[in-house]
Amino acid sequence: KPYFDHGFIAGNQISLADVMIAPAIERLAANLVTFRGYDLREKLAPWFDAMEELPAYGAVMGDPETHNTVVRQLFGLKKDEAHLPPPPQYIPVTPGGAEEAGQCLKNNLDAVVADAVKNSGVSEEDADVVRVYLQTLADSLNFSSFLDSDGVGSVRPMSPHPRPSMQELKELDDEAAEAAVKLAARKRAVGAATIAFVRNRVSAPRDMSA
Question: What is the pTM of this model?
Fold first, then answer.
């Protein structure tokens, strides 16, 4: 702890040590408070404050919801089986273009769904799954909707179709449990293909007319 009391590990400037530990500290801060009730962020507040004032770090830092989602999917936990983390004290500045993109995606959702089904390689029977992931993407881009009256960020949308929780699987027979896991995995694969398709499309805007 004494190393973190004044901000960065090695003084008043970022060092390689800060860069090396940042991903691990991020994950610990997000998951300890959610799954064990231990607020690491409160203990290391000077370090977090110093790091989050750096634009370069703000552009690449992870978010607690994503770190929590990874743990839930790995261990089959449901959202209500753990304490939700408190809203982060700092929200990096997000360009207005993200909100504009989210609103544009919402306004043209039907057309984008049809384009994705036609050109991303997913089956037409998965159109509803494609729509869910695109709607979630649009909601996630709408940054201002996650700010409360004090301008503090709240929880962003959960990723659709998580792996069934252990409790849910225990209530099913072996065959049904296996089918449920495979179905959720298949839907997540469709979602991954959908998001990859959108990423490739926006990276080649001249091709958007297709």
Answer: 0.49
